[in-house]
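Re: weekly structure request thread

Next one in the queue (203 aa):
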Amino acid sequence: MSRGYFADMSDMKQHGGKIAMANKIIIPSTAAVKFPTLEVNYSDGSILKLPFTSDADNADASKSDIPKASLVCLSFRASSQPMVDSWTLPFLNTFGHSSDIRLYEVSFIDSWLLRRSLIKKLLLKVMRKPKPGGENQDALQKQIVYSFGDHYYFRKELKILNLLTGYIFLVDKLGKIRWQGFGLATQDELSSLLCCTALLMKE
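Done, posted below.
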């Protein structure tokens, strides 16, 4: 897990961030692994634990609040944002009116300076955006959140090595990973993602 920037750059030159092709079909629930618990912050400082599931520590959540599917997009460096967008924009266009789906973009901040309490508060204030909600909006809103600290063990659980590419996970209501993608989306991969999401909506 201890790779350097130049090793990541070498990989990017070889495959442009496409470290593997996305799943073509949905992973059966019995074979799926859990998405590791991750504490994130909204830009207003409020805290959320991902994945947001029925068995997570979300005491204020009612059963109706639990999404049937969540798309969790991980970005460790700014260079991966266009990759994440290649997945999220078509996803929003397709499922924008669904209230049973969540979409999270997680940006990881591992700098020891930026994660110091005062600097962290200032940084979140600078990045402040309104939380999803309000009138005349689609039911599905992109929720941009931030995770501060050392993410070594989190990355180890998900076998994440290259920090320059984007990682996309489709998670079910039990917090299990049912589909995964990497880098820039291809048309076939987008079709697979949308199909697998539709299947989760029926489970």
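Helices lie at 5-15, 81-95, 117-126, 152-158, 187-202. The first strand starts at residue 38 and ends at 41.
Next request, please.
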